[in-house]
Fold these 3 entries.
Entry 1:
Amino acid sequence: MCYVMKPIVISEITYRKMNELKIELFSKRGVQYTFDRLIRESIGLPPDEVDARKRGSKTYFILCDNFIKVGSSDDPKSRRTLLQCGNPYKLHLLKVVEEDIEKEVQEKFYHLRTNGEWFYYDDKLKEFVESI
């Protein structure tokens, strides 16, 4: 079933207020907040630090059906939990590497990229993940 929404007319004052709220929501103490941080705070997890890469983050591989997410985090288990909140399919933390090799892996398998940090989990990528 589809619903058709009527267009909403927003006054300039309302638009400015919305932007002020957006700025307040996404900026605290001059630090840009990411969507993940907002989710972490909303479900009661401690917020991440300013930049995970500066803290020696780990590279994780999260499997979802025929796709794999290659990312980095200082806490891959919590990252999987956050991703699971918005995903109807079961996510599996397949592997964690104790160093940040995220960019290298993403560049090596760029041809398998589907969206963002998600890649088709083909035989070559599977072999690579098992070998590290």
Note: The beta strands are 27-28, 31-32, 58-64, 67-73, 92-97, 113-115, 118-120.
Entry 2:
Amino acid sequence: MHTNAQAAADLSLPTGCSRDSPPRLSAPATTALAPVSDSNTHMDAPAAADTMELAAFQTSEGKASRMGRELRIQLLDGRTAVFKDDTTPGMKFGVPRYAGYLKAICSHAIHILQYEGSGAYLVVDDSTGDSTIVFGMPVVSPDAKRFAWTSQAGEANYNSSLIEVWGMVGRKPRKEFSFESETWEPSDAVWRDSATIDFLENTHSSPGDPYIKTPARLTRTGTTWILFESPH
């Protein structure tokens, strides 16, 4: 799924992170997403995210900054993508916070805090401003050809328990693998090599109980991803 954080038409996209002749782009628009959910996110998360954003700015090589309620990202073609806070309660609520520069895949990550839940992430091309929505922080593979992400349902079961792998086709992310579990919640994805992802399966008897964390693995053979679940 792509957002309209910035529109770009009739582009010939290079494979590198810079270009000799940048395309003409339409002016970037603001971004607001529908909520995913987790109680009290709208009250507690923004303050914590502000602190994390300050640390994330250090990775941006001076390209990301904040001016009040606006997150600004300087694109490599000289234009600026602007993402504005919308604190309208309910479905319109969307508070973008910079999450890091994923330079290996020529992208910036933005965490969109929502009224409830853990929110969404935008993977924003550092040259065009084109963006893709995912629902966990991307973790880039060692060969920079893919990224993985995980999300947990949480106590209120607002989010999905998902693990996904996306491949970079040129500069555009394309989903390769997705698995949603009804019995465990994935977290802490780590690439062991460019074809192997280790992660944790989190289970508990009832909401509020401590999670039991069990190692699991996702591997790629040819074009197929194979999930090795732990016995529960």
Note: The first helix runs from residue 41 to 57.
Entry 3:
Amino acid sequence: MKQRARKRRSELRVVFDTSVLYTRSGSELLRAEAIEIVRRESKHQDLRVRWYLPEVVVGERRFQMEAKALELLEKVRELEELLGKKLKVTEGMIKDCIGRSVERQMKSLGVEIAPLRVGEVDWDRVIEDAICRVAPFEPGTKEKGFRDALICECFMQVVSERVGDGRRCKVVFVTGDRLLAEAVRGRIEGMENVLVVESLEELRGFVNTLVGNVSEEFVAEMRARAGECFYGGDNRDAVYSRSDVRGKIEAKFREKLGEVPNRGSRRENGKWAIGDPSFERKKGERIYWATRIRVQAKAWVEPEFICTYGGTEVATGPLLEMSGQPGLSGIDVLGESEAPRGGRTIEEWMGGGGPVSPVLPEYLSLARMVEGETVFEVRWSVSVTRQGTLIRPRVGRISYVGTAWGGGF
């Protein structure tokens, strides 16, 4: 008896840009959300997913990780002085350890390096694009975009490696960089099964479409309607208003909405931005979505001071923590502040006597403002009729994704 031939799995190749991977961690190659997606989406039985980091992206992330680690090296030197002995931590040792860590993390996640085959690059076109400021090169007097141009070339080489007509092999480029996305879209115009997505959420929705036995066209049509169903501007019958999603978030995550960065003294929340729904799955007539809500925020970070008495350091830290300490005769300002250094007492800085609130314009001018965002995810579902009408929406789980200051989401 003949055995039935095993159905050949479809294949998806995903190429990441640095912009969707960046994390301020000095130890993690990828940010937590990217790691979660790689691990989860690698488990599909009927879809083989291959993950790629362009050679340039690996080098860029390694440089960022090294820079973060080297910031700590000065602290090691201070510790050596305190202990009176050398700890034998060198810049070369740090770079070697990070290199091994990058290799170990890529192997653990099953991520491949997409090398740049320099001989296959059309350098005349790259040079012309740089001169004429064609994307991904930025317009203006200064030329910026060479690294992005190399990343674009790496992606196109991954596309060129597809075997056959490409119907079973889709290739996706994930980037949050507008100019780089524009450049890649220009190169892949007219190609079958090659596309650009601009976020990890969009990537997740695309993979769910491939494994969910629904067409990309159906999901695209339903996504637009789902967006209106969830928010719909001033529509009071929309899910966001009728289910009081904002009120639920404010009640459940009050502490998260008040978090400040290290040495932060105050936070102000601003606009609540509602993203497009990401397709999760379809079960019968019910479609499940995930919608992210980003709360924009500003925080003020206190400058760090070092106080000395008779030439000896007696206290270090934010000004408010030190203002009530007796016997501090001088103050030295550290960090990025333009304030004058030394020669002023705490009482002079704080306005003449004892601990007070930081209301002086002189003090406020020292505080550095940083921008960030706190992200939440709402899982919800809706039924679709034969006529394509969305009915009976229902909110499921609302979860906290994270808070990032100065970029990172």
Note: The chain has three domains: 10-211, 223-301+370-405, 304-366.
